[in-house]
Write a structure and sequence with these properties.
Length: about 70
């Protein structure tokens, strides 16, 4: 996110509901694989659960999730 840091406090709660996009200071990027690294270990969270810390790698596994609607 770019722009004023104060905007982070009002935008962050919207991330959990997906209401943070579109936003003029947030870029939406897509990738099949992603690696996150930081100078110091940084907690990694998904769906409200702490999964571990950086460095972390994520990838898409095609056909693994089946949905019945």
């Amino acid at each position: 996110m770019t722009g004023p840091k104060s905007g982070s406090f009002t935008t962050l709660p919207k991330v959990y509901s997906g209401a943070h996009l579109p936003h003029r200071h947030i870029a939406e990027l897509r990738a099949g694989q992603l690696r996150v690294d930081a100078d110091a270990p940084f907690p990694v969270e998904a769906d409200g659960e702490i999964l571990g810390s950086t460095p972390a790698s994520f990838g898409i596994v095609p056909g693994v999730v089946r949905l019945k609607v």
